[in-house]
Amino acid sequence: MPTNIDFSVFQWNCCSIYNNQDQLVQHLAGHDYQVLALQSLNVKKDKLPRLKNYYFPPIHQKVDTTEKINVAIYVREGVDYIYCPSPVPPDTPSIYSCATTIRFNSLNLMVMSVYLPLGPNEQNTEWIRSLQSDLSKNILITGDFNAHAPFWEKDCVSVTSNRFIENVVDSSFYLLNDGSITRIPDNSSHKASAIDLTMVSPDLAPICNWKTLDDPLNSDHLPIITCFNNVKPMPSDQTENKIPKFNYKLADWDKFSLSLSTFHIDDIDDKSIDNLYTIFTTSVISAASEAIPKIKSVKSKKHTGNIWWNEACEEAKKEKKSKFKTYLKEKSYFNHIEMKKAKNKANMIMAQAKRLYWSSFCKNEVYNHKDMQKVWEKLKTMKNGVKLPVSHKGRQVRYTFQSRQG
Fold first, then answer.
1. DSSP 3-state assignment of 125?
2. pLDDT averaged per 10 residues in sequence order, the chain, 406 residues
3. Are 340 and 213 found together in one domain?
4. Which residues, in sequence order, are bridge partners of residue 398?
5. Whole-angstrom distance between the N-terminal and C-terminal Cα of the chain?
6. Which CATH number characterizes residue 105's domain?
7. At 70, phi and psi to the nearest 5?
8. Does residue 103 lie within any of the structural domains?
9. Whose CA is closest to 281, among 237, 241, 239?
10. SS3 label, residue 364
11. Is residue 56 a contact partner of residue 46, using CB atoms and an 8 Å limit?
């Protein structure tokens, strides 16, 4: 794969982000992806995880208060993006989708995350045909389609949906899959499959590189990396009409009101909507800049992964990857069992390391520390998304760690 890579997308069916978030966080510590397109998160909106160095909240499918989120797109901080509605009609059955547009210096790219939990039917892939009619758009479609076909899956013996195949083949989209498996079977008697697909507009195909990772990160789906060469996303602090961030706690509202009072709509000759909007927003931002201090943007530090990660975790991870590679070379019953054993062993070692770290932290840094201000200062320096609800009962303070992230 070429080394001159300017933009990469991480695509993954995480099989419940709550269960596999720790391994995702550890993986992201050593890699620089501009976009994370996730499927099967299976989490409520208020439980969406914060991922260090990525904007929060992520783009996700529209949900009510009880429905769980199944698709989301995380965009790395510093990359300019805008929300765009998913091209999938909202009343389409058995499909979850969301989309965002990444702004480049030379083009705009719509990124979609799609999940079909029950596979394709006669209705839930028709939107692919409507997209192909607009060839001026640059589109990347990522997702778990739960579909089998010889076009993208080696040794495929059954076709899931002829209509879906027609929509893909007849469309202008280029399928990046190279026949590699993307899902590992739960049972050794089942076959590995390639149900996670990646499609791009035809103009993007020559600059794309596609591959699967050799570590499923505790999911039964392999992460997929799509790299775009020689294209750079537009930095978010250099985009046109970018509104600065203000510290509203220190705002001088009297000065702001006085500065804005000079704006009079009667003094404007061109009263078209676009012109009025531009002049008004410019006046508001100008008044805010005079009366409200700006928040300086701080460059994100390199993510170091899970704070409890140790050498035993690293060795268990390497052993798990080694057994998985052996299974990929020869998908035998024995190799499948060995792979599952290594996975379970790694999970136990990581859970133990996490438990021991936080037990030691509570004992040494919380319960035996007299200066509570220093305790909270230490927690703030960790900056790993840890929430510590506190309940007071007399002089006793009880801490409950609720975060799965660190």
1. coil
2. 68 92 90 94 90 91 82 92 89 92 85 93 85 75 91 75 82 90 80 91 90 91 92 57 72 88 79 77 86 70 74 89 85 84 88 85 69 67 47 39 42
3. no
4. 391
5. 33
6. 3.60.10.10
7. -120, -15
8. yes
9. 241
10. helix
11. no
